Automatic annotation (TrEMBL):
Subunit structure: Homodimer.
Catalytic activity, EC: 5.1.3.2
Entries under InterPro entries matching the protein: Epimerase_deHydtase, NAD(P)-bd_dom_sf, UDP_G4E
UniProt record similarity statement: Belongs to the NAD(P)-dependent epimerase/dehydratase family.
Cofactors demanded by this protein: NAD(+)
Domain of life, source organism: Bacteria
Biological or metabolic pathway of the protein: Carbohydrate metabolism; galactose metabolism
Protein name as catalogued: UDP-glucose 4-epimerase
Keywords recorded for this protein, A-Z: Carbohydrate metabolism, Isomerase, NAD
Lineage: Bacteria, Pseudomonadati, Thermodesulfobacteriota, Thermodesulfobacteria, Thermodesulfobacteriales
Residue span(s) of domain NAD-dependent epimerase/dehydratase: 8-255
Reactions this protein catalyses: UDP-alpha-D-glucose = UDP-alpha-D-galactose
Length: 327
């Protein structure tokens, strides 16, 4: 375990994934600093020293980083909706790419070299190999995935020039909630399947839509690799320790190595909640690949990562417990 005196700065640290990582870091006595503009999240609890700020405010951003002098920056602040990225591509390039460049610039000026990046399986587009390894060609099919691929290229070039040490974690489908019930999904406008399905079961949304039933999969719906948010948080802790001790820049998939279709997820949600809610089948959305499943061999080997919540039913049960607590 790295020294408890290590300072970790999280951008977007009050959001869904960031807050779970922040909670785990505080548990292990890391000094946590959070920058978040609260644009897309409604935090119930913020772990660490909090600055309400926007990455667009370059002067304030540099001031915070120079004041806090973090040992490493974890970057969670980005827009994540694939459909929205197709409708508003400039917004995504401006926020995800432009603001990341501003963050990296501030880090350079403040002399901070260690960077942990929240990337995405969306960089793979429609992969030729399933499960998809980190060595697969990057060919995103939507602007969201493009923004992540562009940032990875920037980081790779900076690392080769000796300007930065980084680990890029390519998330597959993150779901679930803190098993202790303190925090959970906190999006103002949730778009993810499991959250929306639970909100339909709860009566907050009238029905759930299945986008496309004619994909080349066993039941015609998209297949995804769902990872519990706390297993993902553990991956961040291990990646942070690896980067600070080894200084080696790497890219790692974060997933379980198996997938579930949209219909299978809906079936488990109905089983867990005991509610047979309304489902409507509609046409495909642009930008959705048929199947995305991680080859997680590398993260298990390099970080010694071993998932603890590797069950779709566990993911949905923890999410449902969280949803039932929300008004």
């Amino acid at each position: 375990m790295i020294s408890s005196k290590v300072k970790v700065l999280l951008t977007g640290g009050a959001g869904y994934i960031g807050s779970h990582v922040a909670k785990l870091l505080t548990k292990y006595d890391y000094e946590v600093i959070i920058i978040d503009n609260l644009f897309s999240s409604q935090p119930q609890k913020v772990y660490g020293r909090f600055y309400k700020s926007d990455l667009r405010e370059e002067g304030k951003l540099l001031e915070i980083i120079k004041k806090e002098k973090p040992d490493i920056v974890l970057h969670f602040a980005s827009f994540i909706s694939v459909p929205e990225s197709i409708e508003k591509p400039f917004l995504y390039y401006e926020n995800n790419v432009g603001n990341t460049i501003k963050l990296l610039s501030a880090m350079k000026k403040a002399g901070v070299k260690n960077f942990l990046f929240s990337s995405s399986a969306a960089v793979y587009g429609i992969p030729d190999i399933i499960p998809v390894p980190e060595t697969a060609e990057l060919k995103p099919i939507n602007p969201y995935g493009e923004t992540k691929a562009i940032i990875e290229k920037i980081l790779r070039d900076m690392a080769e020039a000796g300007e930065i040490n980084y680990i890029s974690l390519r998330y597959f489908n993150v779901a679930g909630a803190d098993p202790e019930g303190e925090i959970g999904p906190n999006y103002k406008q949730p778009t993810h399947l499991i959250i929306r399905a639970l909100k339909v079961a709860k009566g907050e949304i009238p029905y759930l839509e299945i986008y496309g039933t004619d994909y080349p999969t066993p039941d015609g719906t998209c297949i995804r690799d769902y990872i519990h948010v706390m297993d993902l948080a553990t991956a961040h802790l291990l990646a942070l320790e690896y980067l600070l001790s080894k200084g080696e820049s790497i890219v790692l998939n974060c997933g379980y190595g198996r997938g579930f279709s949209v219909r299978e997820v809906i079936s488990v949600v109905k089983k867990v909640t005991g509610i047979d809610f309304k489902v409507i089948e509609t046409k495909r959305r642009a930008g959705d690949p048929p199947i995305l499943i991680a080859d997680n061999t590398r993260i298990k080997k390099i970080l010694k990562w071993e998932p603890k919540y590797d069950s779709l039913e566990t993911i949905i049960k923890d999410s449902w417990k969280w949803e039932l607590k929300q008004k």
